[in-house]
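Fold sample X.
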Amino acid sequence: MALVLMRRLVWSVPILIGVSLIVFSMMHLAPGDPAQALLGPRATEATLRVTRQALGLDQPLYIQYGRWVTGALQGDLGESVRLNRPVAPEVLRRFGDSFVLAAAAFVVAVTAGIGVGVVSSLRRGGRLDNVLMAITVTGISMPPFYLGMLLIILFSVTLKLLPTGGMYDVRQDPTLGQLALHMILPALTLAAVPAAVIARIMRSSMLEVIGQDFIRTARAKGLRDRRVVAFHVLRNALIPVVTVVGLQVGYLLSATALVEVVFSWPGLGSLLVQSIVTRDLPLAQGAVLVIAVIYVAVNIVADLIQSWLDPRIHFA
């Protein structure tokens, strides 16, 4: 286990370096001028020149990159051009709101995905299996922003059961009950695609394990089907699912931007969208870098869990 952890940590270093290069390059190659976005269309060329010098945008890109990476290693992601505040505290604060939403969606996706996959595999070829697989196909095919708007129209506008967006009701003091109520629709929207993917992989893995010799041997010994499924089939079937679950965390981190915009959720995703629109380079780069670090960390944890489930697995 320790060897797997060390190998994954070593491999994560070039990955993060590559991500930082890509993020930095794409943000600087994108059209628009941060100084122009900050000062407005009526700014003079002299004022723009002074602002670019103050922001360090007049220096070569390799110097800007080196300075940004050096600061990031020290926990300093620069200062937001639009907010005029340090990037790191702002990103971490907004990440907390995104984490609450992503964690709820993750629990829903894993629970529903594994449950649907198990039930569907045990009812292979039946009517229930066909219905569940049709639902998973719909879930994978539905864009999250479109599904979110449909849920708002149905449950908020038509049925008036759930709020349309935000984390709390602005007319009342924030409470845990309000947070849970406001989280239902965005969490379901965000969990739809991961749950469908996990369900299909879980079903395929269950069917593959059920057909193996050691399962037939367990049943030949007289073990009950529930015990065979719980202690033999399920554990072995979860091995490929763990890797898929780790990859779905990346989807949750990327799709949260769309979902947060649709539901006015004040998280890291909506902050990233705002920073890109306003050409706030330090804020956008800091947000993407934090998302990349979290994605790499989650996949390391997924590899450790997979290695624990099956010690025969070795990672290069």
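Fold sample Y, listed below.
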Amino acid sequence: MSDFQHIPVLFYETVDALDIKPDGIYVDCTAGGGGHSAAVAEKLTTGRLISIDQDPEAIATLQKRFADNPKVTIVHDNFVNIKSVLSNLGIIGVDGVMADLGVSSHQLDTDARGFSFHKDAPLDMRMSMSGISAKDIVNNASESELRRIIYTYGEEKFAPSIAKNIVKARQIKPIETTFDLVEIIKISMPMKAKRDGHPARKTFQALRIEVNGELDKLSKALDDMFDVLNPSGRLAIITFHSLEDRIVKKRFNSFCEGCTCPPEFPVCVCGKTPRGRLPFKSKAPSTSEIDDNFRAHSARLRSVEKSG
């Protein structure tokens, strides 16, 4: 197993967004190699940090990194289960929750994980290293299902021709590797479209989201993450594409929504009051951060604070 390296995106901005109290309890939902976790743990005195990750390779790295740190508890699970994770630890409420929704540098750079369209590898893409893989989907899903996945999760306008050519190719032989799929995608697009970034980027994003159930899990998890916050607690989320960012933005705005009565009503009858406030709208990486780590270019940080 190679070292689980990850360059934390929007590193200082995310730690600042949590507004860490030295005696508080914090949760890193996507701990990865422990970059953000280490920064949070450093600010704690009597406080506690729960570092969660679904990737067994990440868990092995975290256990090694924080072996001598009693303030850090490492949990192998998916953040969608944050309520049961905290309940099992006897924790009722926390002062901050963060999640970095990007694929880690380790996952992208480890050939065998099959996340990257730049390297020929088994077509896998499973963050948890278990369950249905990308290979299973491209070889078994119907043409209409493939079209839906690629169009909905990749926002790929050439989804119909890509889906059609995947089905045609797999009738001759199974689609086994990332480059098998890349070649199919390339013949499914006009030359002009292939000059606009890597032709496989959107399809690979779509398959990764489908394999890991990312958007469904995110939608449920946001409510649970907000629910477990103590008054004045902060939730900070880093997204990496517009689909995720839209979900987070909409949900955070809903947490901050107040009275929805028509303006002509003399008094409020709906009884709705804001449950939170936005410390800032959103933050993007600086030019220098993007220069140092191009994978950061699409990242957005959003935060919400629970009302006191």
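Sample Y note: The two ends are 45 Å apart (CA to CA).
Also: The chain has a mean pLDDT of 91.
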